[in-house]
Amino acid sequence: MSLAGPPGHLTRRFASFLTARGLDAGEQRWVAARLRDDEVAPFWSQPVADQRHAHDCARHVAARVADRPDLVRAALLHDIGKRHARLGAIGRSLATVAAALRSRGLGIRGPASFDRYTRHGPVGAEELAATGAERLVVEFTAAHHGPRPATIPADEWALLKQADQVT
After folding, report:
1. How far is 57 from 34, CA to CA, in rounded Å?
2. CA geometry: angle 99, 118, 104, nearest 5 deg
3. For residue 109, is pLDDT > 70?
4. Cα 154–158–161 angle (5° rounding)?
5. Closest to 58 measured CA to CA, from 47, 45, 69, 48
6. pTM of this prediction?
7. What integer pLDDT is reported at residue 104 of this predicted model?
8. Which helix (H) or strand (E) holds 135?
9. Is residue 43 a contact partner of residue 77, using CB atoms and an 8 Å limit?
């Protein structure tokens, strides 16, 4: 799994993490209306920047497929595992660099929080699976930094990946 992405995307995500504004009351209601009861507390325990990113991804998806609540929920929850790392912008950046260096054969390791951050997809997917989340939500969460699972149709994968990249 790789967290590396286009440099422009990573730069935008870093800046957005630093400057993210909390969701306003209307946005909070919109999110809450789309989450199951057992997903509400984990969603709101994320850093504000991750809440903002998830909201914006989900709005992107909802604007294109209003009749697919599972796709919207996949967008809302795909980064839910990041909160377990408890890293700020600098820590996330260092974890991403360490993972990129490891993938190139360099034995760079960081603290356990770096591994939790770089494995946030599978970590979040395991958590969501335990709550009974739909297969699409779990599989997108697990694989969103890797190749498309055969069980997710290409058009749905493309929409979710696009939402993750443009917001």
Report:
1. 13
2. 20
3. yes
4. 135
5. 69
6. 0.86
7. 80
8. helix 135-143
9. yes
